[in-house]
Design goal:
single chain; 321 residues; mainly alpha
Length: 321
């Protein structure tokens, strides 16, 4: 059997990850159009292009491409222009460590969980940069709210993920998925709930979109952005949903676990990622925005205690067994 050179394998893995990064967020964006349209009774997104509005996303892309790229006179233009890339690229980096199936992963790291959490957290810096560099007080307020929200929700997110890593006895994402059992759905359910809520909050998605808060901050850190730069922030949001759903699938849903997993395990992973993404979209539709004090209270008075309690329970079970 002919072996593939190491350099060629690296190139093929990089191309595969890049292709997934370019396709999956767009599919999530298209799904958001359709799911929200059905849930809210808005049929507009169902018409563009004929069958089920398949061309709606294409029309949005053309619209963004046609808009003029402008920067405020008072803006720090270098940072202003760099911010969308800083918001987007870390999710591409994080996606490389999330496995679809055994061996089907961009980079199988011993500390893959820590790598994904660290890389995805960097993306928030793009929002901070956008808010500070815009030269707009509303954008700056949105950036400050982003910082406060990140500090509040990063802790319960990491604690929930740590509980699963402790139960599996490894930080390797493939090892965590292999160690998963159906009974984890009950045992790690509190950690799963904390992880999902904290993840949505870190993405600044409704009902946790206080940094954007169009009613009082216009569009928060993104107020001065238009055209393709604003589209990159939207793409970063959808890429964040994919990374969150992928990590949630591996940690709490067994990744590729399912019938005929040895043949179509990658398909099970993609189905679960899509289902979790739809849940994230449903949360946006179903829940009203929180006030800033409610947002902070939820993080520190509810999520952190629940995550700590789950971590202690997991530690007791692991030591006892």
């Amino acid at each position: 059997m002919t072996t593939v050179p190491d350099w060629l394998e690296v190139v093929l893995r990089a191309v595969a990850v890049l292709a997934a990064f370019l396709v999956l967020p767009l599919l999530v964006g298209q799904a958001e159009h359709k799911v929200m349209a059905h849930m809210q009774g808005r049929m507009g997104p169902m018409y563009a292009g004929g069958f089920h509005g398949w061309a709606q996303l294409v029309a949005d892309g053309v619209k963004f491409a046609q808009k003029e790229d402008v920067a405020p006179r008072a803006a720090d233009r270098a940072v202003f222009r760099l911010a969308p890339a800083v918001a987007l690229v870390p999710y591409l980096v994080a996606l490389t460590a999330i496995p679809l199936a055994p061996g089907v992963v961009g980079a199988d790291m011993d500390a893959g969980l820590l790598f994904v959490l660290a890389a995805s957290a960097v993306g928030v810096l793009g929002t901070l940069m956008a808010g500070w560099a815009s030269g707009n007080k509303y954008s700056l307020l949105g950036g400050l709210r982003t910082a406060a929200q990140l500090l509040s929700y990063e802790l319960p997110l990491v604690l929930a993920a740590t509980s699963v890593a402790m139960a599996a006895g490894t930080l390797n994402l493939t090892g965590i998925a292999d160690a998963w059992g159906p009974w984890w759905l009950a045992w790690q359910l509190p950690a799963a709930a904390v992880f999902l809520v904290a993840g949505v909050a870190e993405l600044q998605r409704p009902p946790f979109d206080m940094p954007i808060a169009d009613a009082e901050l216009v569009m928060g850190p993104y107020t001065e952005y238009g055209g393709l730069r604003f589209a990159l922030f939207l793409l970063a949001e959808y890429a964040g949903i994919v990374v969150l759903a992928g990590l949630f699938t591996v940690l709490f849903l067994g990744g590729w676990a399912g019938p005929f997993a040895h043949v179509v395990g990658w398909l099970w992973t993609l189905v679960k990622v899509f289902v979790v993404s739809v849940v994230v979209i449903w949360i946006r539709v179903a829940w009203p925005r929180l006030r800033e004090d409610q947002l902070q209270a939820l993080a520190w008075k509810v999520l952190v205690p629940v995550a700590l309690g789950q971590l202690v329970l997991t530690g007791v079970v692991v030591v006892a067994s």
